[in-house]
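User: Is it possible to get a 3D structure for a protein together with its bound compound? The compound here is zinc ion. I've pasted both below.
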Amino acid sequence: MTDCLFCKIVAGDIEPDTVLETDNVLAFRDINPQAPTHVLVIPKRHIESINALTAEDAALVGELYLAARAVAEKEGIAESGYRTVMNCGEGAGQTVFHIHLHVLGGRALSWPPG
Ligand code: 5GP
Ligand code: ZN
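Assistant: Yes, that's possible. Here is the predicted structure of the complex:
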């Protein structure tokens, strides 16, 4: 996916502010943070959205959540509370069509979101 922004980040064409990296997953700071901690956790392999997931991706999705928790621990927000969000589709606010988990914390977060 040469025209995918997050694939370019994975490839090293764009250098992210990396928080954590594993064999399959990369976590880096959002360029337009909505909270003191706002990190994006992505699979290194291109998957467009939740709608494109297959059963074979189940373990990888689990890795995204374990990485999100590791990010929260690293950022010191695991105990105070944090939110993970995965937008699916334009109507839900997805703007980058390479699946990603937002990890938000470091301030009070209201619920439900707007
Ligand atoms: P979405 O709206 O698709 O759920 O989330 C995409 C996120 O990617 C947004 O929060 C946006 O600020 C972030 N983003 C867009 N372009 C870049 C970029 O070049 N670098 C980083 N680190 N984040 C980006
Ligand atoms: Zn991609």
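Helices lie at 5-11, 58-75. The chain has one domain: 5-105.
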